[in-house]
Structures are given as structure tokens and as C-alpha cells.
Amino acid sequence: MVSPVTVVKSEGPKLVPFFKATCVYFVLWLPTSSPSWFSALIKCLPIFCLWVFLLAHGSGFLCAHADARKILAGLIFSALGDAFLIWQEQGYFVHGLLMFAVTHILYSSAFGMKPLNVRAGLLMAAVSFLTYVLLYPYLSGPFTYLVAVYMALIGFMGWRAVAGLQLANDLWTWTKLSACLGAVLFMVSDLTIAVNKFCFPVPHSRAIIMATYYAAQMLIALSAVECQDVEVSRKRT
């Protein structure tokens, strides 16, 4: 198993642009009431940097590992979703929702179906169901079923990420831990969005949403770095 120190030394420098872009977003803190292509660029810039992070490992790496390609594709759809959500008050919220739904499908596929880990699946199903029960009284029209489908997809993604983290059997790797933490943070970010949009205002919601979102995407991108080790582990199980 690769040590965290080795990971920081090898991958840290490649993530410097991402951290700088994230700092730019929070320092500028452009008002959401005035959407523009510039604000869309600033919001998407950290995700663009994660594209570069994966591409920096070389075309051979991406060609050899389907999981990494799926995560890269998920990041591309995430950037599209981010751009649509800049104009959510102008009627593009559903478009952003659909882009992120595709992202979760791609991430789920990248994480794979082995090991199955039924307990983790039941836990994520319960979390998704209870979240939808909380939101349901506030939903109307197409959001009644769109949010249900979205909750199912992100819950499934969370299940596949958590299922890979086999702490009890000492089979975990830092990439699996990264995927697990990333998925959980993604769920926290989306839950905050949903509660803030449909239920009641959440204090400091934007800061919570974006901090957890950027951290989630970084961790999920990091989980792709050792795809070969993950694939070998899957074959063994």
C-alpha cells in the first residue's frame, strides 16, 4: 500500500493549480445575483484544474485505465453543471441537476460493483430515503420526481465509494479512502443545496456548499491516480 507521505510528494505539486484556483474563487466571491460568463469561469476553474491534474499523468495512463477516464468524464459534466447553476435563477437549475446526475453515474461506474458490501448499500439507501422524506413536503411539479431520481443516483454513487473501503479486512488503500471521503462530502454539498433551495435558508450555505464540493471533487480525482492498484484489488476479491 502506498503511504500518504508518498502520495503528497508525488501528487501534491500537480494539485497546486487547483488550490490556487479554489483560493481565487473564495477571494473574489463574486455575487450570485449577477451571473456572467466571468463568474462561470471562476466557479469552473478549480474543476478545469482537476482535468489538468488527471491529464498530467499522461495519455497512456488514461488509455490504460477506464476508471480514470470515467472520472475525467464526470469532471467534464460537473463543469457543465457548475456553469448551468450560475444561471439557475434564470431557469437552468434542472439543466445543472441533469449534468450532475450524469456525473454520479460515471463516478459509480468508475468505483465499480466489487466488493458489494450490502450493509453500506442499506446505509446509503436509508440516508437517501430519509433525505427525500425531509424534502418531499417542499417539492412540487417535476421536482417531485427529479429530486427522487437524483437522490437515488447520488446515494448509489455514495454506496459504491463507501463499499470499496474495507477497513475491517485491512484491504483499504488511500485511493479508496479518498473516494469514500469525496463521495460523502459530495452528498453533504448536495444536501445543503437542496435544503437551502427547497426548505429553508441555511446560514453560510454558499461557503458550505462550495467548500465541500471542491474538496469532494479533488478527493474523487485523487482516487483515480492508482486505478491499476484498485483494479488488481477488485480482481482479488
Write a structural description.
- It catalyses: a 1-O-(1Z-alkenyl)-sn-glycero-3-phosphoethanolamine + H2O = a 2,3-saturated aldehyde + sn-glycero-3-phosphoethanolamine; a 1-O-(1Z-alkenyl)-sn-glycero-3-phosphocholine + H2O = a 2,3-saturated aldehyde + sn-glycerol 3-phosphocholine.
- Pfam families: YhhN (PF07947).
- Belongs to the TMEM86 family.
- GO terms for molecular function: alkenylglycerophosphocholine hydrolase activity.
- This is lysoplasmalogenase.
- The chain starts with a helix and ends with a helix.
- It has 10 helices and no strands.
- Helix 1 runs antiparallel to helix 9.
- By secondary structure, it is mainly α.
- The C terminus is likely disordered.
Distance between the termini: 16 Å
- Provide the residue-averaged pLDDT: 92
Number of helices, where a helix is a run of at least 4 consecutive DSSP H or I residues? 10
Kindly state the percentage of residues in helix.
over 70%
Rg, rounded, reads 18 Å
- As a percent range, the share of strand residues is under 5%
Q: How many DSSP-defined strands?
A: 0
Order of helices and strands: HHHHHHHHHH
